[in-house]
Amino acid sequence: MKKFLFLIPFLAFLSCQEKELPTVIPQEVMSDVYEEVKTPYKYGLVMAPEDQSKKIDCPTVFRKGGKWYMTYFIYDGRGYETWLAESDDLLDWEIKGKVMAFSDSTDWDSNQKAGYPGLQDPEWGGSYELNQYDGKYWMSYFGGNTTGYEAGLLSAGMAYTDQDPATAHLWDRLDQPIFKATDDDVRWWENSTIYKTWVLLDEEKTTGYPFVMYYNARGDSLNPKRGAERIGMAVSNDMINWERFKTDPVINHHKGISGDAVIQKMHDVWVMFYFGAFWPDRKDHDAFNRFACSYDLVNWTEWEGEDLIAPSEDYDNWFAHKSCVVKSEGVVYHFYCAVNKDHERGIAVATSKDLGKSDLKFVRKEGMGDTKLK
């Protein structure tokens, strides 16, 4: 990558720092980012359900003690639970156990707990380790008490642990949601339900806050239940008390879904990986992975070129969406949720270098702990 291109717009502002950061990313910078993150080699599935009664979804990959870890969801008909897997090489994964589980109670999140470990080192190609705050690791999640696939009122919650995040154990949770679609200060685009949350550590306080959350929600000022899904922001000083940031979403395609933001930083450019689905101007694929870039975490320039990931294989020929992208030892790994036309759902990976076509298919073995792909 031509690294100097990232710095040109920023350096022009160093001599007059009282000015705001540029709000638009030049196209040559966007092209450089694409060349850096593209992963044209689909390796195949790395996590798959043991039968059609379960679906595996939403990878989040982090590093700890020289090993890689992935949290992901399993849907079994009741709702989402969050699981943990371990890997030495980002390709072969061993299931370790649950980190968020159903509650046999009337809690607000008893039947849905979909977690995303937060405060990860945001540097592109960096450590990918989780940072602590107040002596704890933190995991935002969306939860609900209705059974079914993403059913009912889903709200944003916060979980935490003072134990090792690389071990499978149930994380503690705040008693109440940190915000929900029925709050008095809810914005026009999020008044139906809330989905994925991603919490970013911004030590420079670009927005004025050290903790920034991106999340997608559905809603509409006139008809909440039929609204599109868009990405917006919230901010916090303490990981517990959150306030909504700005009135409008930061990614908005007005129809369909724009969702599941994951943020990393390349030099002075923030890169948001996200997915689109059912956009009116996209008739070729139903769901696909994209990216956008920003200097200030608020104003985002969307990539207008080719998708990062799109349906093409037997295992992802319906949806190829929900990104988690890491760079390790010169190779970019793009994990995503792969869904085929038989409605089977698992986690696949594509890479920037050809690691040997694996042609992995959905396999089913008894016991999730025994599920392996060969």
Give a written overview of the molecule:
The protein has 374 residues and is mostly beta strands. The protein has a single domain, classed as Tachylectin-2, Chain A. Helix content is 5%, strand content 40%. The protein has a four-stranded antiparallel beta sheet with strand order 1-20-19-18, with no helix packed on it. It has a four-stranded antiparallel beta sheet with strand order 2-3-4-5, with no helix packed on it. Strands 6-7-8-9 form a four-stranded antiparallel beta sheet, with no helix packed on it. A hairpin with a 5-residue loop joins strand 12 (229-236) and strand 13 (242-245). The radius of gyration is 19 Å and the shape is globular. Residues 7-18 and 364-374 have low confidence and may be disordered.
Write the layout of secondary structure elements.
Elements: H1 4-11, H2 27-37, E1 41-47, E2 55-64, E3 67-75, E4 80-87, E5 93-100, E6 112-117, E7 137-144, E8 155-161, E9 172-173, E10 193-201, E11 211-218, E12 229-236, E13 242-245, E14 257-266, E15 269-277, E16 287-294, E17 301-302, E18 319-328, E19 331-339, E20 345-351
Antiparallel strand pairs: 1-20, 2-3, 3-4, 4-5, 6-7, 7-8, 8-9, 10-11, 11-12, 12-13, 14-15, 15-16, 16-17, 18-19, 19-20
